[in-house]
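sry for the spam today, last one i promise. struct tokens for design, 285 residues
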């Protein structure tokens, strides 16, 4: 599937230019697919696309709602929310809680609805030259990486992953990530490839790492910590042009059928479910 995406442009260009990029759910089209009356636009993160989750969910949705087409814009959470602010997308599936709260406080959406989660991991070369495996916490691992000047590749793109990374550096008491720190300015998949080629460390969601594991020389070294929970939420932008159609997908995703689709997804046909539906309508801690 040829999938152009917003992530991956020159960073200065990405600040001023956005584009609708992809149609999923029934077919992939270079232009409009179906009619405007049966289409809405979903802004979703690169990790949901790179892991294969998004295509799975839209295919399941279309089995039950064949009359609706989902056009998706793939971008980091920060860029996706900017599209929501300007009315270029009708629904957001993002994972940057602090930025989401600011988006709501600015009046751009009424609320955030947590819908699913997976886990972040700190990945790196199997040899683990920094010896962060077994660290008591992600922030301890980050402090170790900074002290040793070990290579670390950041997305650097205002995505949910980038926001979480910044929070972990802050917890570690480190400014700037140390001498080995570089920014890719790219989405999750490309950032993982850069880290693999450099023999560097990287923060990633576990599902994208699993999807690309056969072509990367990276393994999860720090995982299973409360600060690594990765929560994806739905936001309905007030500027949306097609809010009723988008609401049909949001309602389905939070229904029993949508929750089952989330729980049934397996990366590369694996045995373990790496995504889980959010437990009920309770807000995250």
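last one done:
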């Amino acid at each position: 599937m040829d999938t152009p995406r917003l992530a991956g442009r020159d960073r200065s260009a990405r600040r001023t230019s956005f584009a609708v990029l992809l149609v999923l759910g029934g077919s992939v089209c270079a232009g409009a697919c179906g009619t405007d009356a049966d289409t809405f636009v979903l802004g979703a993160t690169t990790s949901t696309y790179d892991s294969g989750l998004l295509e799975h969910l839209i295919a399941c949705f279309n089995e039950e709602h064949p009359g609706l087409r989902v056009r998706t814009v793939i971008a980091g959470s920060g860029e996706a929310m900017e599209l929501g602010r300007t009315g270029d997308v009708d629904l957001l599936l993002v994972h940057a809680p602090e930025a989401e709260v600011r988006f709501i406080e600015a009046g751009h959406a009424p609320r955030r609805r947590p819908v699913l989660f997976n886990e972040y991991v700190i990945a790196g070369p199997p040899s683990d030259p920094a010896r962060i495996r077994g660290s008591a916490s992600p922030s301890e691992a980050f402090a170790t990486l900074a002290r040793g000047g070990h290579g670390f590749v950041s997305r650097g793109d205002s995505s949910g992953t980038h926001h979480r990374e910044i929070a972990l550096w802050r917890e570690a008491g480190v400014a700037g990530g140390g001498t080995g720190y570089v920014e890719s300015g790219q989405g999750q998949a490309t950032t993982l490839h850069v880290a693999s080629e450099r023999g560097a460390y990287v923060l990633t969601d576990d599902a994208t790492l699993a999807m690309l594991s056969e072509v990367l020389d990276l393994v999860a070294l720090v995982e299973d910590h409360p600060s690594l929970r990765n929560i994806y939420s739905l936001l309905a932008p007030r500027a949306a042009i097609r809010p009723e159609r988008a609401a049909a997908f949001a309602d389905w995703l939070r229904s029993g059928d949508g929750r089952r689709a989330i729980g049934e997804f397996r990366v590369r046909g694996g045995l373990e479910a790496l995504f889980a539906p959010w437990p009920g309508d309770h807000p995250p801690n």
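The chain is about 35% helix and 20% strand. ok im logging off now
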